[in-house]
Automatic annotation (TrEMBL):
The chain crosses the membrane at residues 24-42, 54-73, 79-97, 104-122, 165-185, 192-216, 222-244. Signal peptide: none annotated. The keyword Repressor does not apply. The keyword tRNA processing does not apply. It comes from Microlunatus aurantiacus. It comes from the Bacteria. This is Uncharacterized protein. Residues 251-273 are annotated as: Disordered. Keywords: Membrane, Transmembrane, Transmembrane helix.
Length: 273
């Protein structure tokens, strides 16, 4: 109840300070699904939790569907309708995944292929800058409350179902939904695409987190499995942040780019400030 809202608030602050891609990477850390799978392991044992983690790995396919639905719908319908469409896509995909019994490695391959397909689509989107807007004071508290409500809803639903649906519900886009909804409502397609450019690559690390749990929880102590899975996801997140920082244009380059893209016959170009 406290970790998920805290993740959303910190992610939102990081996105304002360092850009939406940075915030998108942070929000994919397993701070929401990780505790859910840990509770499942402590309450039901390693074998049950390993099965749930296998379905959680496959559940990353539903997260790819979530991102794809938002990309397609954000310009066509209001932001709240786009979220409903994305959630419907997630739930339908999750229900389909519960009907399949596949090894953990097959679930991982399917998840990686789906996520990289969406990454390819994101690379083809326009890279427009996000226009800074003054946000209301209630913005961060509203994000925290919305996240808490989603956490309660998903965890209660997970209590009523078996390991298959519990597993695919574990990666339900709780924090992702909140940050994406606010981005779509406040900055439109530009802000949402910028956020997804960090989220979708970061989900590779989340898929690996679930996969490590799936193949180790029934063989190793719970704390060892979760430590190894968390370390792997953190290493990948740091690598993505490092690569993004290295590839980001410098301030002088951004200034040069603004000068070069200015219309050549701007009447106010030489006007006094």
């Amino acid at each position: 109840m406290l970790l998920a809202p805290a993740l959303v608030v910190l992610t939102s602050l990081a996105a304002r300070r360092w850009g939406p891609r940075f915030g998108g990477i942070l929000v994919t850390l397993p701070i929401v699904a990780g505790p859910i799978l840990l509770i499942i392991a402590l309450e039901h044992g390693g074998t049950f939790a390993a099965q749930a983690a296998t379905f959680a790995t496959a559940g990353n396919v539903a997260l790819a569907v979530f991102a794809l639905a938002l990309i397609v719908a954000v310009d066509r319908v209001p932001w709240w309708a786009a979220m409903l469409i994305a959630w419907a896509g997630v739930l339908l995909t999750d229900l389909g995944l519960t009907q399949m019994q596949v090894p953990a490695w097959v679930a991982l391959v399917a998840a990686i292929l789906a996520l990289h397909g969406v990454q390819h689509l994101l690379r083809r989107q326009r890279n427009d800058p996000v226009v800074a807007t003054r946000l209301p004071r209630w913005d961060l508290p509203a994000r925290a409350v919305a996240t808490a409500v989603l956490v309660l809803t998903v965890t209660k639903a997970a209590e009523w179902v078996g390991p298959e649906l519990s597993g695919v519900l574990a990666p339900f886009p709780i924090a992702l939904s909140v940050v994406c909804a606010f981005a779509a409502a406040q900055t439109g397609r530009v802000g949402l695409v910028g956020l997804l450019r960090g989220i979708v690559p970061g989900l590779d690390g989340f898929a690996l987190f679930c996969f490590v749990l799936a193949v180790t929880l029934d063989r190793l102590p719970i704390w060892v499995s979760f430590t190894a899975a968390t370390a792997l996801s953190l290493v990948l997140a740091i690598a993505l942040i490092t690569i993004g920082h290295r590839d980001a244009p410098t301030d002088s380059a951004r200034r040069d780019q603004r000068i070069e893209t200015r219309p050549p016959h701007d009447p106010d170009r030489h006007a006094a400030p």
